[in-house]
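Students often ask what a 'structure token' actually looks like in practice. Rather than answer in the abstract, let us consider Ribose 5-phosphate isomerase B, a protein of 150 residues. Its sequence is given first.
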Amino acid sequence: MNSVFDTTKPIALGADHAGFEYKEAIKLWLTNKGFTVKDFGTHSIESVDYPDFAHPTAASVESGECAFGILFCGSANGVAITANKHQHIRAGLAWQNDVAKLIRQHNNANIVCIPARFIALALVEEIIENFMTTAFEGGRHSRRVDKIAC
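Now compare that with the structural description of the same chain:
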């Protein structure tokens, strides 16, 4: 897989309890493909607060420590809202392959948020692969993305 992101940096992973099992599966899937990951937790299925894991994941992408991020929670809305509080983060919720492509092409998303309770793991892998391999189109989209930050 030819990622459009800097693959010399780790991929940031974070999840709440609803996304824990998918995070673990994707961590193994990515490492088996030769990628390095940085796991910001959670580390079990015990109930937790998603901001405790979304904030450090987003901070690692924002600082440049990690190339991009993947966040999981039940609906993916909570982690997307939390990650987007960071000034230089563009977290997009993706539940289909076309959406994963569009959040990269049109929004230059640097974190993909996955709704673990609503899609199968095989689709999650496809979504992440599409997110990783789709380039930002720039052009008219650059003007729009430049207007996002406050």
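One point worth highlighting: DSSP finds six helices and five strands in the chain. Ask yourself how you might have guessed this from the sequence alone, and why that guess would often be unreliable.
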